[in-house]
Amino acid sequence: MNWDDLRIFLATARAESLTAARGSLRMDPATIARRVARLEASAGTALFLKSPQGYRLTEAGLRLLTHAEEAEAALSRGIGALTGSAEQLSGAIRIGAPDGCATYLLPQVCARIAEKHPGLDLQILALPRIVNLSRREADLAITVSRPKTDRLEGERLSDYKLSLAASKDWLARNGTPQSLSDLKNLRMIGYIPDMIFDAELDYLSTLGVDRVPLASTSVSVQLEMARAGGGLAVVHDFALPAAPELQRVLPDAVALTRTFWLTTHAGPKDARLERITGLLRDGIRAEIARLEAKTAPPQAAATVPRQR
After folding, report:
1. What's the whole-model pTM score?
2. pLDDT digit string (tens) for 179-204?
3. How many CA atoms lie within 13 Å of 179's alpha carbon, on the beta-carbon side?
4. Domain locations in the chain as residue ranges
5. Which of 93, 125, 226, 270 is the most buried (most CB within 10 A)?
6. Is 198 helix (H, G, I), strand (E, B) or coil?
């Protein structure tokens, strides 16, 4: 088994299909299939479960994956040490993120990184659920909770703030609530209750709200509903600069804080992924600080206790 075999194995495992692996390997699917079959014959065991839906790793494949990634990381470090090529980054990196982060933070951050590293392909996977790194949906993920499996590791990325807000037109028509108890009689915008994929996103129950007349799995859709005068919504402070129609409501009673985590596979990482992780970390922290400063309330508000 040589490095070229491992390179094809890694690309197929990460893409989970021959067609998807074609781009990074620059081979046609039939050639990749033959190389994978040859590798399996050499290993004396099946490394993939093959179906019309794609290629999924077997238990043997998962065991090989760990060692193949360690070999990839060691090779990357060695090449960097010999060539001094630490400055320019290249290749594809897929970043999984909740859609609020993917919509209002990552575009600016990725654009700045791409400007400095034109050979780098940055892909943002925005989903209304937890991105499955174990299934290789992405190379790294930004999550709203710390990972709970030993196969993943999480680094605290940044706290971010959320506020209750409504459009100025809606407030003019319906009046401004004076207390949290008023929210029960007003139209609320939020997540579809039975599709909340992380307890950290269950903002409205924290505020004592049990009915959500306007709901979506998407943060950006919720924000647009509020901008359109649909009702009251809990919105990210870093998204408020993109919604000048919105006005904070009950700022002294509602000031939520949550945390983004930078989640990666546990174990050794190649030098390229380490550098990209560092660029994302610095960029997101700076972007949150920049955007939140634009709409910061005149004084700190009392926080509503977080539910765990």
Report:
1. 0.71
2. 999 998 899 999 999 999 899 999 99
3. 1
4. 3-83, 91-156+260-293, 159-258
5. 226
6. coil
Query: Which of 120, 110, 137 lies closest to 263, judged by CA?
Result: 137
Residue 218, SS3? coil
Residue 296 has a pLDDT of 78
Per DSSP bridges, beta strands 188-190 and 232-236 are: parallel
| Matching residue, tokens 């977080």 | 306
E strands of 27-135, at which residues?
A: 48-51, 54-57, 91-97, 120-126
Amino acid at site 152: L
* β partners of residue 264: 153
**Are residues 144 and 200 in contact, defined by beta-carbon separation less than 8 angstroms?**
yes
SS3 5: helix
* Helix boundaries (H) for 119-267: 168-174, 203-206, 219-227
Provide the pairing of β-strand 152-167 with 188-190.
unpaired
Strands 214-215 and 232-236 turn out to be unpaired
Neighbours of 135 (CB within 10 A): 11
Tokens of 20: 């998807």
Domain 159-258 has CATH 3.40.30.10: no
